[in-house]
Specification:
Elements (H helix, E strand, L loop, with lengths): L1 E6 L4 H7 L1 E5 L2 E8 L2 E8 L7 H9 L2 E4 L6 H13 L2 E5 L6 H4 L6 E4 L4 H7 L11 E10 L3 E10 L2 E2 L3 E4 L4 E9 L2 E3 L1 E2 L4 E7 L11 E3 L6 E10 L12 E6 L2 E11 L2 E10 L6 E5 L6 E7 L1
Parallel strand pairs: 1-4, 1-5, 5-6, 6-7
Antiparallel strand pairs: 2-3, 3-4, 8-9, 8-16, 9-15, 10-14, 11-12, 11-16, 12-13, 12-15, 17-20, 17-22, 18-19, 18-21, 19-20, 21-22
Length: 298
Amino acid sequence: MSNHIIAVPNSVDLASFIGKKGSENSITFYNRSIDASVITALAPTSTEDKFYAISEILTISETIVLSTENMDRLFGELLVASKLLGKNVILTSENADSDIIKNSGLSNYKVCDRDTLLETILSIGKNDNPAQTCRVDIDKAFNVKGIGAVALGVVIRGAINVHDELWHSSGKKVLVRSLQSQDVDIKTAGPGTRIGIGMKNIEPDAVEKGSVLSAAQILPSKKITAKIELSEINKEDLVPGNFYGLGSNFSYSMAKVEKVDGDKVTFALEKSLAMEKGDTFLLLREKAPRIFAKGTLD
């Protein structure tokens, strides 16, 4: 079975076409099973008061699907973010020949109409390696009668198995009691799986959005240093004292620039985030383009 996590940041209609609406918080999940494959589309619940969710879905997804139906400010900002991330991009065909796209510098993209969208998503290659150490990023947790604590998340790398003992980013060791994907009980789940995890030795209140289950312990930190890549159209230098939003996977925090050394920048975070070397994040500001820089943790 192949599992595909995709971002659909600018069209609820397109996300609804891709899959059936599932759970939601700042992010809404849409799920579809096709033969032996599963597509999970992530869309921001609101692009107005929860714009930060766009940075989360863009960083956690393998592929970005952009609707070209409305060539507005948001679409332009998404082109900027997509180029920074360098991920596979699929553009819908309505206005795919627009000069905005041609002049964006975006190169790694495909164009398709709605009739071939699902086929195009499934055709994009994946570099899954279940032998890597397990990591699951969590977006929600709650209590289920008869089961106990249950977390919803996405397998980022490796594989999670029933009876595994994993570290939660709170520092607690958690036993995996059960796994479920697409309403089916399973014994193991590999990269890209949208997964429900029955857990022992932890309460739902201790499992926050953005927390992590992993084979190697990942502890939250309020200070990070990262290599920063600025958008080519950015006209703002990062200087100590500046504040930005920082979004990565299911995590978000305000971040203060503490030190700048070339392209290496140290940030003090308002909220502790569970991140590790190699993790990617996006920086947000108020003026356009609101997403203007990418960071990779040292």
